[in-house]
Amino acid sequence: MKVFVTGVGGQLGHDCVNELVTRGHEAVGSDIQQSYAGVNDGTPVVTVPYVQLDITNQDAVKSTIEDLRPDVIIHCAAWTAVDAAEDEENQAKVDTINHLGTQYIAEAAKAVDAKMVYISTDYVFDGQGQRPWKPDDKNYAPLNVYGSSKLAGELAVSSTLDKYFIVRIAWVFGLNGKNFIKTMINVGKTHDTVRVVDDQIGTPTYTYDLTRLLVDMIETDKYGYYHATNSESLPGEFISWADLAEEAYRAAGMDVKVVRVTTAEYGLSKAARPFNSRLDKSKLVENGFKPLPDWKDAVKRYLAEAKL
Predict the structure, then answer these.
(1) What's the whole-number mean pLDDT along residues 257-275?
(2) Is residue 243 part of a domain?
(3) Distance CA 197, CA 262 (A)
(4) What is the DSSP letter of 147?
(5) What is the CATH number of the domain that holds 145?
(6) pLDDT digits over 65-102, tens only?
(7) Is residue 270 part of a domain?
(8) Is residue 182 situated within a structural domain?
(9) How many structural domains comprise the chain?
(10) What band does 35 get if pLDDT is binned at 50, 70 and 90?
(11) Residue 260, domain member (yes or no)
(12) Catalytic residues
């Protein structure tokens, strides 16, 4: 298959390209910058044809995808700076990227009859309650600008296409770019104590594991909404950000104390964060997909690969 991947400069798009090539698919990457060297932390990796594309330019999106005529589009490009999205001067830009840019991609996918994968987030929900959110829950109530823009993107895809996979993830970490674990390790090199939120609950997503699932998906026609984070160590055992930080330090062999605090006590976020980021992933198994591995195993593998 020929697969067009947006946002290859980010954590997920970068890994998608590598997995596609490994699996024998033809990959074409795109991002807003002029070129993509296919590098991670200075180490050469797989390089693929690259197209510079601003997804907010409707004409450019249309012509690029019509020229390439991909079988599948994996849409990873997005505004992901959650707190910065709250700034008044950024709000229109966030909607243009996450909502309208996605709409343009979906319309172009429909024009060439391509499947589309849209990467979304648990932030489309309000984070209340104790039960995990199910992929087909419709009680949307985003708490912040970022979540609202991603929900608008979801609705643009589902109202435009029949051949789509909307995949919600949470707490993302990967080799290419910034993430929570990388930040914790770097902070732990200069501090013996860190304060970490303990009342937001969910499970993380390792982009390397996620991309393998995404490629499995596009090789089928089992369309719809899915949730995909790394698996709990025990059934129903979700974790907090503090738990994730402690495991990262343990796996890295670092003696750093994690001081558990509430979201209110932490007090640094502009954007409201959901307390319940639990995502029900049972639909993956029901549709014959292999769930992502245990989150602790993912953290261990990530740290070995990242060499932080």
Answers:
(1) 91
(2) no
(3) 5
(4) H
(5) 3.40.50.720
(6) 999 999 999 999 999 989 999 999 999 999 999 999 99
(7) no
(8) no
(9) 1
(10) confident
(11) no
(12) 146
